[in-house]
């Protein structure tokens, strides 16, 4: 257990971490009582769940009817007979929907297509439905399992802190979609105070906190060794590297390289098997059973697979189900162990390459393999055999492996052990430059030049870097960009500035038109300059038109787990600041 201090707050508070996974989801929580040492607990019972256990998770599945009404969720969605009912009543199954949130730059290098969303539903609709369900299950569990549970829930429900975890590759835009889903699910009110109760953490960082708080490979951490955390889940494999450091007598971790996210999770093993079975069964009468046979492989054959030199079996039918031509006997389909191993190969290679790559330039000596996919003995042994000879220690938790992210997300909120993070891409803003006749780049773009109210001639389309790629950023470290703005008296004082992300190969892009396909508007920063205008006197331009000259900075914090910004200006020799609203594209 971690050595946490007693909670120093004055009022009771509840922290709830909702881990919506690609294939399975779970909930952990912590009741903060003044003077008491916080203890992380898990929701261990869900509706229709056959067994309750400390690492309980439920399938991330929703059934909708043809009118978009929810008919079954979680464990109920996979109970015996539900498929027959769904087919008879024309229900729509929504699964793996989390992957619809993924950013476009995270590519899928296989033929796999994410199952479509239900007709008439957006990803925010579906995500919201599942968040509401998880939250309701949490409320029911606390009411029923805690002493005075009814009164307890009533005392904390209006101030619950919500932690939402997500893959390393999800960015600020995806966080905004998740936030809107949480608001739509009525987890918090649609107000600034409600938004402040929603927090985000990457699955990699949550996994690190789990490892720390559960003393996973404590000796390596004490030695100050560099640690690679690999969260192998249903949809993604998230890779994060950390180094231990001491600050003000406390132990912290800093991110050593930009976090990685690969679409190589356990569902892609099943998809590999499905493609193999599709070809195998194409001339068999069992080809109509492809989906069911693939599901049986996913539930039993895949998690039990341990040896490539022995055959593996998919039990899907009855004793009279036979087809010797495709190795089906007595309701069992026989596969070569070497073929099953090939289904795992992309995932195994992804992890091995990451470990050896980090070993080469970060001297990583310890790797923590966590997540639901880490429970696969074949995955673990395959990776271990490849990296052990390189002097890498590979460990995986021996208990609660399915609740790593949910528990770690609560630990992140309580312990906050990561002090700096590494930027994944180049971030910056569009800029205008004063037109210079001798500047070749300006002359090339002279058709775009325009005159400001002061008569100053400018060239638009320049790009100014605010945060370079792979820069180590501390949590409260500020990044600024200075603006010079000329506003007519009648102009709107609410300004909008786009924050851009560059994902191309240039190290120092100067002009957006040099590689336009790799620039993306991350969000729009919106600030009201009315207070600043009030302290300025207008001046008259060449055409006798009065206008204001405003000098201000946009101040951005990239080092937190979510983006934050302010507007700053100088007034009477002192800096003043105002709020910046961060606006993302609507769904």
Structural write-up:
- The protein has about 575 residues and is an alpha+beta fold.
- The protein has three domains: about 15-205, 2-Layer Sandwich (Nucleotidyltransferase, domain 5); about 215-395, ATPase, nucleotide binding domain (Nucleotidyltransferase, domain 5); about 425-585, Substrate Binding Domain Of DNAk, Chain A, domain 1 (Sandwich), CATH 2.60.34.
- The chain is about 25% helix and about 30% strand.
- It is built from 14 helices and 31 strands.
- Strands 10, 11, 12, 13, 17, 18, 19 and 23 form an eight-stranded mixed sheet that branches. Strands 1, 2, 3, 4, 8 and 9 form a six-stranded mixed sheet that branches.
- Helix 2 (about 125-145) crosses helix 3 (about 150-155).
- It is globular, with a radius of gyration of 27 Å.
- About 35% of the residues are buried.
- The model has no long low-confidence stretch (mean pLDDT about 90).
What spatial form do the alpha-carbon principal axes imply? globular
Total number of β-strand segments? 31
| Residues in β-strands, percent | 25-35%
Give the biggest beta sheet: 8 strands, mixed
Structural class: alpha+beta
State the end-to-end distance: 42 Å
Tell me what the CATH architecture of the largest domain is: 2-Layer Sandwich
Task: Give a quick summary of the entry.
The chain has 587 residues and is of the alpha+beta class.
Explain the layout of strands and helices.
Elements: E1 13-20, E2 24-32, E3 40-42, E4 58-59, E5 61-64, E6 70-73, H1 82-89, E7 92-95, H2 123-145, H3 149-156, E8 161-166, H4 172-184, H5 192-195, E9 198-202, H6 203-213, H7 218-222, E10 227-232, E11 237-247, E12 250-255, E13 260-262, H8 266-280, H9 290-304, E14 312-315, E15 328-329, E16 332-335, H10 337-362, E17 366-370, H11 377-387, E18 393-395, H12 404-415, E19 418-422, E20 426-434, H13 440-444, E21 450-451, E22 457-467, E23 472-474, E24 478-488, E25 494-502, E26 519-528, H14 530-534, E27 539-540, E28 546-557, E29 564-571, E30 574-579, E31 581-583
Parallel strand pairs: 1-8, 8-9, 10-17, 12-19, 17-18
Antiparallel strand pairs: 1-2, 2-3, 2-4, 5-6, 5-7, 10-11, 11-12, 11-13, 14-16, 15-16, 19-23, 20-22, 20-25, 21-22, 24-28, 25-26, 26-31, 27-28, 28-29, 29-30
